[in-house]
Specification:
Elements: H1 2-26, E1 27-33, E2 38-40, E3 56-62, E4 67-72, E5 75-76, E6 89-91, E7 103-105, E8 115-123, E9 126-138, E10 145-149, E11 152-160, E12 166-170, E13 173-174, E14 180-186, E15 193-200, E16 206-213, E17 218-225, H2 230-257, H3 262-269, H4 277-289
Parallel strand pairs: 1-9
Antiparallel strand pairs: 2-7, 3-4, 3-8, 4-5, 6-7, 8-9, 10-11, 11-15, 12-13, 12-16, 14-15, 16-17
The chain binds 2-acetamido-2-deoxy-beta-D-glucopyranose (8 copies).
Length: about 290
C-alpha cells in the first residue's frame, strides 16, 4: 500500500510539473502604446510540425469571451468577430503552418488595457490552448511644464497612461503629498490623463516636478529656480524711482540756498572772520550794471 501511494504521489507531481512548465512559456505580457500597433506573440514552432489539416480552427479570444479573430478551414472568418476588435486585427496566414500564431492589434485603445487573449487551436475537434497574452496599455507623459506666478508653482503634464502621482523634490527633500494640490483629468476621447499639481514656493528654491510611468518605467521631469518675488522687485523699483529724483532735488535746493556752502565750514575751522564774499559779488554785479562808474 505504501509503495503504491508513493508512486501515485510522484506521478501526480510529474504531471503537475509538466503542465506548469508548458503553461508558463505560453503566458506573456506585452505593452501596447495607445494609438500604435501591438503584437500579441504566439510562437508554437517548437511543437511537432503543425501541418494543419483542413479541419483546423484557430480562435483568438479574450476572457469575456469576445472573439478577436478566427481562422477556419483555410480562411479568415469575420462573422463572429466582436465589433470592438473590428478592423483592428491582422494575422499572418502564411506563417500559421509554421506555428506563428501571433496577432497584430492596431491601433491600441485605452480600453484594451489588461486585455487577455487566448489562442485556441482546434484540430479534428480536439482543442488546445496555445498561448495567453495580456496587454498592458501605456502612453508616455509629456515633459512637465512649469508655470510660476505669485509664489505658487504649477506643474502640468498631459497625455499619459496609466494615472500616476506627480512628485516634487526640492533641495534633496521629497515634498509630502499634502504639500501639493493635484488635479487629474481623463481625456474622454483617448482615455489619457492630464495632471496638474500646485505648490507654494519660496525665493531661490530649486524645485523639481516629476511624473513616473510605472508601465514604461519612464520618468519625465523639469525644474525651476524660483526668482526673487514680484513684490520685492517692485519695492526696489519704487525705492530707486523715489530716491534718485530726491537726491537731485536736494542737491539743487542746497546749491540754490547755499551758493557758498563751504563758508560755514571755514568759519568753524578758522576762528578769525573772513571778508564777506557776498558783498564782493554784489559790488561786481552793480559794477557790471553800471560800467561807467
Ligand atoms: C471598418 O472599416 C470599414 C472600411 O474601412 C468601415 O466601413 C467600417 O465602418 C469599419 N468598422 C468599424 C467598426 O470601425
Ligand atoms: C509572426 O508573425 C508576425 C506578424 O503577424 C511577425 O511580426 C512576427 O515577426 C512573426 N514571428 C516570427 C517568429 O516569425
Ligand atoms: C500661467 O498661469 C497664469 C495664471 O494662472 C495664466 O494666466 C497663464 O496663462 C499661465 N501661463 C502658461 C504659459 O500656461
Ligand atoms: C541628498 O540625500 C542623499 C541621501 O538621501 C545624501 O546621500 C546626499 O548627500 C544628499 N545630498 C545633498 C546635496 O544634500
Ligand atoms: C499655499 O499658500 C496659501 C496662502 O498662504 C494657502 O492658502 C494654501 O493652502 C497653500 N497651499 C498649499 C498646497 O499648501
Ligand atoms: C489635456 O491636455 C491637452 C494638451 O494641453 C488638451 O488639449 C486637452 O484638452 C486636455 N484634456 C483635458 C480632459 O483636460
Ligand atoms: C536644480 O536642481 C536640478 C535637479 O536636481 C539640477 O539639475 C540643477 O543643476 C539645479 N540648479 C541649480 C541652479 O541649482
Ligand atoms: C527602470 O529604469 C531604470 C533606469 O532608467 C533601471 O535602472 C531599472 O532597472 C528599470 N526598472 C525596471 C523594473 O525595468
Amino acid at each position: 500500500v505504501n509503495v503504491e501511494l508513493r508512486f501515485n504521489y510522484c506521478l501526480f507531481f510529474y504531471v503537475l510539473k509538466v503542465i506548469s512548465v508548458v503553461s508558463s512559456t505560453k503566458e506573456q505580457t506585452v505593452v501596447g502604446i495607445i494609438g500604435q500597433p501591438v503584437l500579441l506573440p504566439c510562437d508554437r514552432s517548437t511543437l511537432a510540425t503543425p501541418n494543419y489539416p483542413t479541419r483546423t480552427r484557430i480562435y483568438w479570444q479574450d476572457l469575456i469571451p469576445r472573439v478577436l479573430h478566427v481562422f477556419k478551414d483555410g480562411n479568415e472568418e469575420y462573422e463572429h468577430q466582436n465589433l470592438w476588435y473590428k478592423n483592428r486585427t491582422t494575422i499572418n496566414t502564411d506563417q500559421l503552418a509554421s506555428g506563428n500564431l501571433s496577432l497584430l492589434l492596431n491601433p491600441v485603445n485605452v480600453r484594451d488595457n489588461l486585455l487577455t487573449c487566448d489562442v485556441i487551436l482546434i484540430i479534428n475537434d480536439v482543442n488546445s490552448q496555445e498561448c495567453q497574452i495580456t496587454v498592458n496599455v501605456a502612453a508616455s507623459y509629456q515633459k512637465p511644464t512649469l508655470n510660476f506666478t505669485d509664489m505658487t508653482l504649477v506643474c502640468t503634464t498631459h497625455g499619459g497612461f496609466p494615472e500616476h502621482q506627480v512628485t516634487w523634490r526640492t533641495h534633496n527633500r521629497t515634498l509630502e503629498r499634502h504639500e501639493a494640490v493635484t488635479k487629474t483629468t481623463q481625456d474622454p476621447g483617448t482615455g489619457t490623463y492630464n495632471i496638474s499639481s500646485r505648490v507654494n514656493v519660496t525665493e531661490g528654491q530649486n524645485i523639481t516636478c516629476s511624473i513616473y510611468n510605472p508601465i514604461l518605467n519612464e520618468t519625465q521631469s523639469n525644474f525651476i529656480v524660483i526668482p526673487a518675488s514680484k513684490e520685492e522687485t517692485h519695492l526696489l523699483k519704487w525705492i530707486l524711482a523715489a530716491f534718485c529724483p530726491l537726491v537731485v532735488f536736494l542737491t539743487v535746493i542746497l546749491c540754490l540756498k547755499y551758493p557758498n556752502l563751504r563758508k560755514p565750514w571755514r568759519k568753524m575751522i578758522h576762528c578769525c572772520p573772513e571778508p564777506e564774499p557776498e558783498n564782493t559779488a554784489q559790488e561786481a554785479e552793480i559794477a557790471e550794471l553800471n560800467p561807467q562808474q
